[in-house]
User: What shape does this take?
Amino acid sequence: MPKAHHQPRPVGTGTISEQLPEDIRAQIGRRFPGGYYTAEPYRAWLLADAAADRPHAPAVHPLHAWLATTGGIGITWDEFFAWFGATAADGPMFGEHETVLHRRLRTDRRYRVSGSVVSAVRKRGRAAGLFDLVEYQLELHDDADGGHVATCWNSIVFPRGG
Amino acid sequence: MPKAHHQPRPVGTGTISEQLPEDIRAQIGRRFPGGYYTAEPYRAWLLADAAADRPHAPAVHPLHAWLATTGGIGITWDEFFAWFGATAADGPMFGEHETVLHRRLRTDRRYRVSGSVVSAVRKRGRAAGLFDLVEYQLELHDDADGGHVATCWNSIVFPRGG
Amino acid sequence: MMGHSTVRRDAAGLRVGMEIPPWEVLVSAEKMKTTAALLADPNPIHFDVGAVQALGLGDRPVNQGPLNMGYVMNMLAAFTGSHDCLRRLRVRFLANVLAGDRVRAAGVVTGLTEAPDHGGRWAECDVSLAVVGGRTVLRGTATVALPGAGAGAAESDDHEENKT
Amino acid sequence: MMGHSTVRRDAAGLRVGMEIPPWEVLVSAEKMKTTAALLADPNPIHFDVGAVQALGLGDRPVNQGPLNMGYVMNMLAAFTGSHDCLRRLRVRFLANVLAGDRVRAAGVVTGLTEAPDHGGRWAECDVSLAVVGGRTVLRGTATVALPGAGAGAAESDDHEENKT
Assistant: This one.
């Protein structure tokens, strides 16, 4: 199982811990269905262009690691939000993200995507109010030789309207 | 099996029929793997915007029928081209297209996509040279009640460099 | 970047031979990129100027055929009042449209038949798309539903109306 | 619509505390649409002005967080010579970027260590993205591979070079 190599951090300042409901706590460690992702050249080109980069660079834009893990996670955003009793209308927000590249990204390689929820904490911020801070981590492995290609770690904030 | 309700037509003028190789003829009637497609609201919005339409219209843009059949056909363009011994580099081109809407398109409905290759002929044009004209047809059915929603018929031209 | 025709359509004035108000748009390279992503269309002629040049197709991206057809659908929706009035559209692709081209969809009513199922009429139409001041890039035929002669005028941009 | 910094990077001149040449871009609403399609991100705040207004977020679409991070990656690639030099980037999203904003990625080298595995050095960097004349929208840290002190100057926009 992917291991969280980051400690949860407070969002902003002045956060204090609150009791996490059991149904949310039960999501910690839950694995994503996972799947496969291939960085097709047209997607590599379009993503680089969307990021205002020069799409002709031979290197695949490292942002593609994030796109790959999202593309192969095996569930939709709505399904993921539902794991935490939330919907898009609740306004979940990315808190932090880390991409670690263990090996160069390439087009037309088939990558295996796997990962899980690594932590969940409930906090109350002076400005933010009540929210849950959830961390999840996804791994890319080259499907041909099993090599570890990238790790994408994310934290996401679910406002709880408190 | 979907039935061709169109006769093959010559591309341009002055085309004459040629012998179709057996491996191409063998593709006639071949069914696509098929699959499912849901016109998610964000895709309906983006497609209408891409077509320079007003994305806020409650009606789903009828171009979405084509997008749905393509999205649920179950093979990639490269795989489809390979059925006819061709690649994207050979420059296959859309010849004709027909969308027939039997029922209103809606967002968030799950549509079943099915279809097959309905004809293939080899022709020689005075200007176009040797080419294969392939027709294929896809059907959208509402997965909830089985109702027939749309038919998309296409002809595609494979230049044969002759 | 786009021009919508605003038409008051007097149902009683519908007749064979009448022209459908044209619909124009300036074709955008950026929208081809979104379309390539939506259609999962890997062909670089729709976004990569370098690929277009390498193929000797000039120096502007080539619009997707479906978008060209979509513009004709827009013209028909402006004419009938809603995309939901379209029953059938058949087109033949004749030539490429390039980023920066201004194109115009046009059409003419070629037949009108009573349609008891929706209390109105079916209009058969000849349709086309052309580069303004240039060649025709698409020709086809369409069938659209129209309200009956007694339905009176309707505003074409009232897309709220549910016609089916 | 975008400005690429062109930098001659003298490997011998690398030092802790040096500023990474900034990288600027004018954020495009059209590119958010392509990104929404690529990411299969249904959130309408990235493309639908009506949805943005309904949420009280103003009247301009909100850029995707990944794109904000991508701009920082672009700055680092211009500095190192290639996207393939990036080993790690961690960012915290602090605020939204809106269509039409001009944003600037900036950074400073905070540490240099020898990296025998690629014959060069690892640079640790603090990075940020800010709206020009406005607030900081992202902060983070990065680790990038750099050639060794003996490697001499390299042109940052030589993306042909294979550094790994």
